[in-house]
Amino acid sequence: MKHKLIIFFRTVWRVLFSINFLITFLLLYPFFLIFIQFESCWRIVFILKRLWAKMIVYNVGIRVKIKDEAHLDKKGTYVFCSNHTSYLDTVSTYLATPIYFHFMGKAELLKVPMFRIFFWRMDIPVDRSSRIGSHKAFSRASDDLKKGISIAIFPEGTILNTAPKLHRFKNGPFKLAIDNQVPIVPITLKNNWVILPNGRKAKKGGRPAKMQIVIHKPIETKGMTENDIEKLKLTLHDIINNELRK
Questions:
Q1: Which neighbouring-strand residues pair with 63?
Q2: In what order do the strands lie in the sheet containing 210-215?
Q3: pTM of the entire structure?
Q4: Of 27, 46, 92, 93, which one has the fewest beta carbons inside 10 Å?
Q5: Mean pLDDT, contiguous 10-residue spans, the chain (246 residues)
């Protein structure tokens, strides 16, 4: 009986989370729609996204604890890479850093009405089923880095049902960082998979908790070549994995 009550309340909380997510989006949607039309206003869109992220979590009792080991240069350019275990992860990335960035995400997000507005122009959809589409996406990301715009990407590529276990990282983010000689910043999202589970665990609902984010020291890529991709992947994997094991 106690277990059923816990599941019931967690399910109610997840429904409230979804309602809050939708309402706050609709409140900001007119501003997103106006400012995203003009590239010169995309930084305003980014500020609004960070505001939306705060509304998403704080309104439903989630508190945020950020451990900043990086102390990044706000004028620097980086490739942000984190583990991916929950739909909260994108929100967490916006909470983690005020440094302006564009997100890279799977092309399927273009089919989701609420996210299509962002991936239509500002953020970067990656069609992994198409070599040409994938190349175009990483070419656009490379152009952004050259302009001094940071990139955020999940190296695992998608959310898997084995959270918090890390899976094999794809080469793309590491090649992108090395080609442009910009640092990679590992970010560990420690417990999003507990707060808002995904996949089979979603039926257990969710719960308010303290979201724990760790921003690790950047990994420098200057002087690296494509021959260093595997080594770089392993370094980032170990940093995040070690933090998760704590």
A1: 210
A2: 63-68, 210-215, 184-189, 79-82, 150-153, 101-106, 124-126
A3: 0.93
A4: 27
A5: 80 95 96 96 98 97 96 95 95 96 87 83 88 89 97 91 87 96 98 89 85 98 96 96 93
